[in-house]
Design brief:
Length: about 575
Amino acid sequence: MSTIKKLLGLSRSEWPLLGRGLFFLALSSAALLAYPQAVKKIIDDALIYKNLSQLNTAAFIALGVFIIQSGASALRYYYFTLAGEQTVKRLRERLFSQILGQDVAFFDRSKTGELLGRLSSDTALLQNALSVNISMLVRSGVQALGGLGMLFFTSAKLTLFILVIIPPLGFLAAQFGKRVKAISRRGQDALATSTDVAESSLAAVRTVKAFVQEDFERQRYSARLDASLLLSKDKIRQVAWFTNLVSLLGLGAIVFIIWYGGRLVIADELSVGTLTSFLLYVITVAFSVGMLGSLWTDFMSAIGAGGRIFELLERPVEDLDTGIKVVPTAEIAFRDVHFSYPSRPEFPILKGVSFSIAPKETVAIVGPSGSGKSTIVQLLLGHYPPSSGEVTFGDRLSHDYALRSLRASIGVVSQEPVLISETLLDNIRYGAPGATEEAIVAAARKAFAHDFIMKFPDGYQTLVGERGVQLSGGQKQRVAIARAILRNPQLLILDEATSSLDTESEHLVQKALEEQLGQRATIVIAHRLSTVKRVDKILVLEDGIIVQSGTHEELLRDSAGLYHTLVQRQFTTQKEIL
């Protein structure tokens, strides 16, 4: 019941539209309930007595009723559907905002396909429930109740029989609804899983094709769809069984009404016109109740989808604005920091890490894969709090600052920069949404990106494609550097920024990066040790512990140290690094 209240609460802003829809719904329902009386008048007053004037009058009345009914029905559909569409639009906006507002730990535990399923398939179910279906539900309910009242008015004897079969049908419908709701929820979860497989396959389509694994991905997707299909089959069987039962009882009731009503006509207790209008009311009620049964299954599916959506809508989001709004240009320090990811609390990543970075100092962090280098970046950005120890900016803990301000003071260039599917101008401006075009061009020049951008026919208005697929690796990196420079951060983080580039691209990117060294505090995380020779300090990380610290020359002299070993692995002679 709480989910239903929440679903109805979503439409609160659309009450004016819904009010108009209800008015035209009442008008169309009243017209629909009036036409059997016109049919009764045609039969009893015109056909039996062969009165042409009465026939013409009754026919015009019936035609007028149908004109009112059809026009009101169209307006009812328009207002209810428009209200539902606008409600679902706001719901999708809220849901997307809510998902984006979650902390990084949430995304560690969630699958992208499942989240996309909430935004697409689950909201689509609610879209039907809150637009066309809610209109049909109210209409069918009004017509069923109104028709039942007219049945009593027409013949109380025949109506009493109909009332005998309604309670059992209501009980069956309630039990049926529970089963359909449970099946629909599992079906939507299974469909979301298949969406996750499809999303991951398409995102990595180049890898799939490189390894000729199209058949494997098809089989993986097909297996998930098969699981969803099994649940759909179960739901279809339940719906078919319930529909068959309702149809059988309904048709049996009509047969009884014709038989018993015929006896009353023969006994002169009922006119032919009255029996005919009664049958028309029965058909109206039966059609409305049948529609309610069909809509019931849809609403049970929508309630299941709504439950999953409200689980997300009610999750707390990251508080970006509570805390100190200005991050000072001061020393940044880690003090005895221990950390384990929330999804793997038993697996420590950092084990007592301590270091500091002075303003305008450049520090490199090197070490084997999995030693915790990128985790340090995650803690600096406030994506996770340390399990113990302190991360400080100046004389304050990092969590004393508002997350929006803290992250605005940091610029990150990663190994695989992610570009949005917009223009080059939009991608650079992503670092500072209020920047002027002149500032964007200046940042692109500093990143050595301006020249290649101007070679495109559309220049800065060139679309980069999904994830920047239209650009080379070096071009994407230089756009990412321009984006970070435009932000003018107090701390610049270069996370493996050149490790996946060819020699020429690496040279240009390295040149752009070196232009920034000494202008702000900078952290360089690198596998290619040739890129860290000119930094002020190198931290060597191994298994979550800083095992060495010093300049390139100091560390290289320690032949027993890890840094020397890493250098020897990458270069055939020591001359190449000197």
